[in-house]
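Now produce a polypeptide, keeping tokens residue-aligned:
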Amino acid sequence: MERKYKIVLVLFSLVVVLTFGTRNSYAYTLDLLGTVWNTSSVTVMIQNEEYVSQDAVEDIVEALEDWNDALLEIDDAPVLTLVRGEKRADIVIVVGNEGGEILGQTRTRSVGRRSLILRSSFIRLNGEVFGKEFSGAGIRNVARHEFGHALGLGHSDDPSDLMYPAFECQDVFGYYDVVISDYDIDGLDAIYPLHKRFPLPDALFWEE
């Protein structure tokens, strides 16, 4: 998997798909970014919180808390800590309404050219797509997906998994929460804590 170092390690975009498909394969892969946080607490800030609806803020916080519940299952994994009124944070979230097909994007930076340690992450959540606003569940789903990237997960090729690179319309405008899967947790368990003597895996494989 291609990674660009120095300024930006990786940029992931999540899109909405308008059609449905079926898969015949039951062997799946979850890509891992090969970078981790080397701290027990990762701070998170919503940069433009004063311009975001309270409902949207609560949905983002709920997505954060869902990841913290999952991270508690992993030894020495970091927890996400929401901060307000700070000038900086490890993960910065901006909420906008740019429309188009992009639901959210995540950019991550490492501390150096060849470092495995994450320095910062920037998440952009779009509040609407194709001129239609996300539902509360839609905001939570997109936020969960982007938090996954910020923690070190890449994309899954399982259409039912949270880390699949596209959501269907009901995942964005409906009332169904796409939850963090056991495979997503296994992916983080494979990279946390950082073992300096062993390289980080590039992917996690499973069959159903």
User: Anything to note?
Assistant: The chain has a mean pLDDT of 86. Residues 13 and 105 are 4 Å apart (CA to CA). DSSP finds four helices and twelve strands in the chain. The first strand starts at residue 10 and ends at 17.
